[in-house]
Amino acid sequence: MKGNWMATKAASVIPAQAGPRDWLTVLGEELSTHVGEFVTRRCDEQFTGRGEGALAVTALPEFVRGGKFLRSMFAYVGWCCSAPENDAAVRAVASLELLHCFALAQDDVMDASQLRRGRPALHTQFARWHRDQGWSGSPARFGEAAAILSGDLFLVWSEQMLRESGLPAGTLSRGWPLYDAMRAELAAGQLADLVNDARTVPDWESVLDVLRRKSGNYTVRRPLELGATLAGCDTRISRALGVYGGLVGEAFQFRDDVLGIFGDPDVTGKPVGQDLRDRKASSVVALAVTMADTTLRRELERLLSRDAIDDDTVAALRDAIIASGALDQLEKLIDKQVRKALDVIDSADVPARMAETLAVLAARCTERVR
Questions:
Q1: What is the pTM of this model?
Q2: How far is residue 21 from each of residues 34, 262, 268, 312, measured CA to CA in Å?
Q3: DSSP string covering 110-167, please?
Q4: Would you say the C-alpha torsion 167, 169, 174, 177 has a positive or negative sign?
Q5: How many CA atoms does the CB half-sphere of 238 hold within 13 Å?
Q6: Is the pLDDT of residue 2 over 70?
Q7: How deeply is 254 buried, as exposed, middle or buried, from its count of CB atoms within 10 A (0-12, 13-18, 19+)?
Q8: Residue 166, Cβ density class (10 Å: 0-12 exposed, 13-18 middle, ≥19 buried)
Q9: Which of 216, 288, 336, 360 counts the highest number of beta carbons within 10 A?
């Protein structure tokens, strides 16, 4: 089985004449298959026949499926800017989805989020399992601990999947410094975000700094740079990809923050205004407080300081944010960042097919699905 996993073929896994959207669709299917199979094998190795793994063998493989695989897609585009398509490279970049699952599992615990992608979060599933078994102790505490340990497994498996992808050791050695930087930035950014969430209303610059470190770099820039570095991409193209990644990554987080307050629950998988209920230090709230006049600012701060943020408070906060002009300003910022990013790609020697794909991915990251 390991031999099959390590097998490499130079032929393209995706039809050469496919348009960017079809190409990304097939790529997403390949990524999902590789990640699902890898995690299923790891769960079989670690948990089969052991009582503590009765839920893990189903919950963990299911958790890694259903994502958008954005980070892996960006990494593979970075690879394809300088190297031919390759199954081993697809497996290598698929490992970034496991890094993302690590972040999601632990983020849900920190935020006490009950849902992830419209399904019960991992800690919720483990808590329910504990309760159904009639075990002693707190189901909630058990669920949180089990989800954190699951996140640790995803983090270990991410590196293992990259190392065992089939790419030559020399190729992988180019990428390890970037991979390490990506993981460190994610953790450091998460800590900074935790500090911001503890404040009543963090200032705009603090939120923007965390947004860039935790989400912008981690979601777009670093994956692109990692893929390009693994492929031995030339400096000019790598630099352009990095600039594009920073701009689109920032716009992606702006959009995510907007959806966290104004998004359709059927699309986001979260209740209306969940980020407000969780008192998240989002760019939407920080910008609203910055742009509001004195009277509106006081109203925002009064609403945000309530002991409980119920449906009426969410509605009032949404109205105040719109009145401040912050929502409109963020939409303009998103459009501006994407335009600048595409201009950077157009002015560089990025292969035409990958330039078209980056335009599609930029739109996918920032589309108004609300």
A1: 0.92
A2: 20, 27, 22, 41
A3: HHT--EETTEE-HHHHHHHHHHHHT-SS-HHHHHHHHHHHHHHHHHHHHHHHHHTSS-
A4: positive
A5: 17
A6: no
A7: buried
A8: middle
A9: 288
